[in-house]
């Protein structure tokens, strides 16, 4: 993945939400994106996923997102921030996870036995197989979060973009998701970008940390390098990191 001179401005706004972004991520890397509220973390993920118009070079999975956004999204598992559905939403949890497979194989192809096997295997791995036949709107926030993560994983993605995936999860579930990400990196060299505001919840074995502040990347590199930088101290003050 390569971003060079990237700026993204929301429609109707004059000031870019992110600007002058230069970022390189190798295949198979696990990258954590941190920064204060309003720093541009979600905007960066949406730009990489080709959901927003941007200036500059955005090359993802060897493709120019501006020209091949649909193909990039077909190979990308995306978990949006703060996903909650109304209680009367009729879709069953397993149907929502299957939407990830449809995104991969295309909407006109019927779901096969293998597709359903993948769906159920992912739900089993996340410990939510017993929720398969329950309406997603009746699930707790943490259960819905796991369903959305399962939907992204069922896509068998080459790239995972996870926006605050730990926000509704307990410590045990966080560790489970981090283990799954590590397995994906080992087994399939899948690349993952994880946004988190909770520094204590970030994956312990991430390869790179990217610090955003004021819409710019102010530090990036190995975790200890970023956490000892002046940019980090300016963004977070004398914050003490505590792993859970």
Report on this model:
Strands 6-7-8-3-9-10 form a six-stranded mixed β-sheet, with helices on both faces. By secondary structure, it is α/β, with parallel strands linked by helices. Helix 3 (93-105) packs across helix 4, helix 3 (93-105) runs parallel beside helix 5 and helix 4 (113-125) crosses helix 5 (141-154). It is built from eight helices and ten strands. The mean pLDDT is 92. The chain folds into two domains: 1-75 and 158-171 and 190-244, P-loop containing nucleotide triphosphate hydrolases (Rossmann fold, 3-Layer(aba) Sandwich), CATH 3.40.50; 86-156, no CATH class. The two termini are 30 Å apart.
Topology record:
Blueprint: E1 2-8, E2 18-24, E3 30-34, H1 41-48, E4 54-60, E5 63-64, H2 65-74, E6 76-79, H3 93-105, H4 113-125, H5 141-154, E7 159-163, H6 171-188, E8 191-195, E9 208-213, E10 216-221, H7 223-227, H8 230-236
Parallel strand pairs: 3-8, 3-9, 6-7, 7-8
Antiparallel strand pairs: 1-2, 1-4, 4-5, 9-10
Task: List its salient traits.
244 residues, Rossmann fold, 2 domains, six-stranded mixed beta sheet, four-stranded antiparallel beta sheet, 8 helices
Strand elements, count: 10
Number of helical regions: 8
Based on CA atoms alone, the radius of gyration comes out at: 18 Å
Provide the structure class. Answer: alpha/beta
Mean pLDDT comes to: 92
CATH class (first level) name of the largest domain: Alpha Beta
Assess the beta-strand content as a share of residues. 15-25%
Shape: globular
Report the biggest beta sheet as strand number plus sense, adding barrel if it closes.
6 strands, mixed
Q: Segments where pLDDT lies below 50 for 5+ residues? A: none
Helix content: 25-40%
The spatial strand order of the largest sheet comes to 6-7-8-3-9-10
Topology order in helix (H) and strand (E) letters: EEEHEEHEHHHEHEEEHH
Indicate how many domains the architecture comprises: 2
* CATH architecture heading of the largest domain: 3-Layer(aba) Sandwich
Report the CATH topology name of the largest domain.
Rossmann fold
The first-to-last residue Cα distance is: 30 Å
Tell me the CATH superfamily of the largest domain: P-loop containing nucleotide triphosphate hydrolases
